[in-house]
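Quick one: examine the sequence and fold tokens given here and explain what the tokens say about the fold. Here goes:
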Amino acid sequence: MTTATGFNAIVGQQQPIKLLKTFIRNGTMPHALLFTGDDGVGKKTTATAFAMACNCRKLGSAIDRQPHPDAIIDACGDCGPCRKIAGNHHPDIIRVAPLPSVIRIAQIRSLLQSLALKPNEAAWRVVILSEAQAMNAEAGNALLKVLEEPPDRTLLVLTARQPSDLLPTIVSRCRHIRFSPLGAPDIKRLLALAGGIEPESAETVSALCGGSFTRAQKLMDSRWLRRRDWIHRVMDEQLAGPPPPQIRTWLAFSEKLARKKDLIEESLEIVTMWFRDVLVARHDPQRVLNRDRLEALSRAAESVKPARLLLQIDAVDRALKALRSNTNARLTLDAMVLQIAGACT
């Protein structure tokens, strides 16, 4: 996964790239591909690189002359089709994405009308349908038509988090390729290429981002880091300090969390990571995610019993589920912190 174009510039997805190169080398392209994996692991970037390789004039001529090993199956980046696709203005590379959070039937109908016409200039017309899980039921059913009867020399690439987010009839008509979370070294490499980050911060973020470069960029925001430090400070004082926990302080914590509703879920993820790290710090400190906080987490691990931590993690999980069901945020958070405090007694 990277901001550059071409297979060789994509980081951390060797198996998907190897498979796509094999399709191109052998001329055995499936009419529909489904790329699944977390956000920020390179699905859309790879789809663009695949579209470029399928239409690269230099690569096409080289393959026609003689078979090539996978290592050099890649777009040149210099020919007309490559430049147009990289610049996002090739007429036969069609991109469909949620507007703003849903892919509606009108978008799929427009796509079907475009696919009824012959390609303008491409060797392979490629449709990149991002976040396919955002299709409503009508849109999904409409897409089945083109998956059942694909136009000649047309490839569809769908991206989604997981196959279960899509209609089974759509999944069954696609060749599924799974994209793995990026490793911490890959994340650090990408952050270094982006520039403007201290090595210590890159180390922390690469451990916390769950293998997603998109999430890593978000975590680099100083506001997120300040929020994490505030939450950790409360947890350290209330749970790892001398008993008993102060209910008034817990309710003040709940009130502050509830003020920014768009950040509640993110904040609760930070709380859960704190509990998880305290559990891990006791037995395997090298697997702590918040590595820059290892000393404080190790102190907490000495004073907090694992059984208590598990009860507190359950309290946060229940709160997250309730919030996703549109319960009252302040009441839900109050109940959560009281349960966390109650587990201390």
